[in-house]
Specification:
heterodimer, A: 115 residues, B: five-stranded mixed beta sheet, four-stranded antiparallel beta sheet, globular
Chain lengths: 115, 111
């Protein structure tokens, strides 16, 4: 158990809909990261938050947004869903914002299926 | 975005050492090499990381060449539960704290 909690574990929805994925980082961790893993793309970094503020963006679509709340949990919002958004979405956390000697701890992921 | 190159797949006999290579020829002086693995569709699991010295923990050993352009992850006595995709990652330190995962090496431990 990494200490990172993601909910829900599975999510099935239809095209055009909007969903919210939730992540609770490990106790004491201030940074949260979101990754998308689809069959043909591998693990893609989406976005990083540190203590409530966006710190880095990766390959995140404009239809996707995220935020980190004062209690440090984070939500990833996916809107106008398309079939290609079906993927595993992972959240990870680390203690600080920018430390090259720091590990990321990953949650068990949310499997999103868009039908 | 990935700054590493790994073979796509490897096999290893159960009980033998598994040696997984990784090339990172463009690594910078302050960038660490990390290894993670992903078993089936579970979240990636941290294995080990290092800067320039060899490292060992309860899971594995990491051997980094003197020029730091390549490294090898060693699982000393592979078991069936070590079957997974292994990712070698060089952290992009100058633009944030994120890890960029490449395609990894799919290791199959054979009974």
């Amino acid at each position: 158990d990494s200490g990172v909690t993601q909910t829900p574990k599975h999510l099935i929805t239809a095209t055009g809909q909007r969903v919210t994925l939730r992540c609770s980082p490990r106790s004491g961790d201030l940074s949260v990261y979101w990754y998308q893993q689809s069959l043909d793309q591998g693990l893609q970094f989406l976005i990083q938050y540190y203590n409530g503020e966006e710190r880095a963006k990766g390959n995140i679509l404009e239809r996707f947004s995220a935020q980190q709340f004062p209690d440090l949990h984070s939500e990833l919002n996916l809107s106008s869903l398309e079939l290609g958004d079906s993927a595993l979405y992972f959240c990870a956390s680390s203690p600080r914002q920018f430390a090259t000697n720091e590990k990321l701890f990953f949650g068990s992921g949310t499997q999103l299926s868009v039908l | 975005d990935a700054k590493t190159t790994q073979p796509p797949s490897m096999d290893c006999a159960e009980g033998r050492a598994a040696n997984l290579p990784c090339n990172h020829s463009t690594i910078s002086g302050n960038e660490y090499v990390y290894w993670y693995r992903q078993i089936h569709s579970q979240g990636p699991q941290y294995i080990i990381h290092g800067l320039k010295n060899n490292e060992t923990n309860e899971m594995a050993s990491l051997i980094i060449t003197e020029d730091r352009k390549s490294s090898t992850l060693i699982l000393p006595h592979a078991t069936l539960r070590d079957t997974a995709v292994y990712y070698c990652i060089v952290r992009v330190g100058d633009t944030g704290n994120q890890f960029y995962f490449g395609t990894g090496t799919s290791l199959t431990v054979i009974p």
